[in-house]
Write a structure and sequence with these properties.
heterodimer, A: 319 residues, mainly alpha, MetI-like fold, 2 domains, 13 helices, 0% strand, B: 332 residues
Chain lengths: 319, 332
């Protein structure tokens, strides 16, 4: 695991940038716990400082209602991520389960599940989400919203997991395990799961991407708990009070910029991980590894290229 | 004949399954929600005034009928299908008794127009630019373009539209903020140019999102393709680079794009809905938005069903055109 992360940092520029951004987001979330007052509370800023542009004291400016945009933003980012996490756990949970069932069972079960999955992929999800969210309008909390988003975001992932399982089933080591009498549960857990987990990681990251986007969209339509702060509700209120027309663009700019930075961060990390999983890129990485090692050995005075190569190979195997 | 049996009929069967699953999900999800829209509505009506209890009972019966909530779940489901097959989506609650069909008919041409134009533009542009960047990936301009797309791609349509709206309609008032056209519909240059002017920013927002997605896919496919022997041979034979990209690489990577077009229609449609809301474009999105604020359940239901059938049919059409592009399917 540590080697993987080290390799990701070493060879993937996008992963480095992405994790830097996510670190920034994490710091922002951590600050939210030190807010001097509940950030959604109004009239906490002194009267003459209300509705003022960013200043030294109020880094991101204040709203006309006397809220500090910075503290609103920290809470908003945190809450958006909470919603997204719930959605991701539920969506990917269903996805992994269906994909694995479909892939391992095969036959009629696989065909039925696949025809449902294919249908759900084609069906536009936003109107359905809106339909349910409207019915639940008064009762919407972060949890229900997260569950709702997750409940409709499993079709693509499950297809990908199924493809993974299908390819794993045909690998030599699976046949070896079956012929040597290993039982199915053990094969799935010990032999196959290690291959699926990295894909899950990439998938979880892109799940965040989708969920953040949907949260912002639904909140903009007023389909969220509008009294709480999230990136989406911040944009909703900024729009509702027409902050742009009133000449207070910073109220709108802060949540919009934050959502862009966040999705780009998640996207960069997901690019990094998928590059890492790409076998062709892995070859390039291996060669770079070897070049590094050869260089090291050369510095130490061992000038046999063959020795360097086998040493590096041994090192690869150790890892 | 072979084509009909091995490709067209299964595809049509899948279309039926998609619509069946979609309609069933649309039917079930609201009914599993803990809130009964009828109770909700009656609660709101009786909150500020006292109504005769008998009238409330009668009102409840009428409303359950309107929402299609009377009888057992199975009866409701059958009735749901019966009304749907007759093309009856019920009346709007806010503008009773105008049928939902009228609202959808008013919004549909705008949405279909916007969606087809933007889908085609973003699809073609994405494939073209993405393949070029995939082929010339070490050039400076290609790398700049790729970085740009990496920032654009994950942005939700809402954010893209919001930024375009603020920048190009408010701060630099090049385009109108709200609406679909000016004047009454007529085949005059004035009316048509106003459609283009009003539609420009909404279309641009959708094109940007669709383009970024297509670009990434095209680039990945082109990168794989240029490693093949024939491309290297063509390069060694000094075939002009432009010709390698345009006639060889793009043509050979075209099939997955055609295939994927059918799958990405739904996402484009969602983008169009939200962009229409942002720009007050008179399509289905705006109708949906008004319905949301009025809790007009039937309109939302109607638009949901309409979009499921529409997108399923759209992707069916794309898939039925597929044999034209792929001789392996055609001549099997």
């Amino acid at each position: 695991m540590l080697t993987t992360i080290r390799d990701l940092f070493r060879f993937s520029l996008s992963f480095r940038f992405g994790s830097l951004i996510l670190l920034l987001v994490a710091v922002l979330i951590a600050t939210s716990f030190f807010a001097p007052y509940p950030p959604e509370k109004r009239r906490v800023v002194p009267r003459k400082m209300r509705g003022k542009p960013p200043s030294v004291e109020y880094v991101l400016g204040t709203t006309a209602l006397g809220q500090d945009v910075f503290w609103m933003l920290t809470a908003g980012v945190k809450n958006t991520l909470i919603i997204a996490s719930i959605a991701v756990v539920i969506g990917r949970g269903i996805g992994v389960l269906l994909g694995m069932i479909s892939g391992y069972l095969g036959g009629a079960a696989d065909r039925i599940i696949q025809s449902i999955v294919e249908s759900v992929i084609v069906i536009p999800r936003l109107p359905l989400l809106i339909l349910v969210a409207v019915i639940l309008k008064g009762e919407l909390t972060f949890v229900t919203l997260g569950i709702l988003i997750g409940a409709l975001d499993w079709a693509y992932p499950s297809k990908r997991y199924r493809a993974q399982v299908l390819s794993l089933r045909e690998r030599d080591f699976t046949h070896t395990a079956v012929f040597s009498g290993m039982n199915t549960v053990k094969i799935v857990i010990q032999e196959h799961l290690p291959f699926i987990i990295p894909y899950m990681l990439a998938d979880v990251v892109s799940g965040f991407l989708f969920s953040i986007g949907i949260e912002v969209t639904l909140s903009y339509l007023g389909l969220n708990d509008l009294n709480s702060l999230s990136l989406g509700t911040m944009i909703y209120w900024a729009n509702e009070w027409s902050s742009i027309f009133a000449g207070k663009p910073w109220v709108m700019i802060a949540p919009v910029t934050a959502s862009i930075i966040m999705v780009v961060g998640f996207y960069l990390v997901s690019i990094g991980i998928s590059e890492y999983l790409d076998p062709r890129k892995r070859l390039v990485r291996l060669q770079a590894h070897q070049a590094d090692l050869a260089l090291e050995l050369e510095r130490e005075g061992a000038r046999t290229p063959g020795g360097a190569f086998s040493a590096s190979l041994r090192k690869e195997q150790d890892e | 004949m072979q084509l009909l049996k091995s490709y067209i009929l299964p595809r049509i069967a899948q279309w039926v399954v998609v619509i069946f699953v979609g309609v069933t999900v649309t039917f079930l999800i609201p009914r599993f929600s803990p809130i009964n829209p009828v109770d909700d509505m009656i609660g709101r009506m009786t909150a500020f005034q006292t109504i005769d209890p008998q009238a409330v009972v009668a009102m409840r019966a009428t409303m359950e009928d309107l929402y299609g909530l009377d009888g057992s779940l199975l009866e409701q489901y059958v009735a749901f299908w019966q009304r749907l097959l007759k093309g009856d989506l019920g009346p709007s609650f806010q503008n009773f008794p105008t049928p939902v069909n009228d609202f959808i008919a008013a919004g549909l041409p705008w949405t279909v127009g916007l969606l087809t134009t933007t889908t085609l533009i973003s699809w073609l542009l994405g494939i073209f630019v993405g393949s070029l960047v995939g082929y010339f990936q070490h050039r400076r301009w290609a790398q700049v373009l790729e970085r740009l797309v990496i920032v654009i791609y994950p942005m939700p349509y809402l954010i893209t539209a919001l930024i375009l709206l603020i920048v190009f309609a408010f701060y630099i008032p090049l385009f109108p903020m709200v609406g679909g056209a000016q004047g009454s519909p007529a085949l005059t240059w004035q009316y048509i140019s106003s459609i283009l002017r009003f539609g420009f920013l909404p279309a641009l927002s959708i094109v940007i999102g669709g383009f970024a997605f297509r670009f990434i896919m095209a680039k990945a496919l082109a990168t794989t393709e240029i490693a093949s022997d024939y491309v290297q041979y063509a390069e060694l034979a000094a075939v002009p680079k432009r010709r390698i990209v345009l006639s060889y690489v793009i043509r050979n990577t075209m099939l997955p794009h055609v295939n994927d077009l059918a799958l990405s229609l739904g996402a484009m449609f969602e983008g169009a809905l939200i962009v229409e809301v942002m720009f007050g474009y008179p399509g289905l999105g705006s109708k949906l938005f008004t319905a949301i604020s009025n809790a007009d359940y039937n309109i939302i239901m109607g638009i949901t069903l309409m979009s499921i059938v529409g997108i399923a049919t759209g992707s069916l059409i794309v898939d039925l055109l597929y044999p034209i592009f792929d001789p392996r399917v055609r001549l099997r």
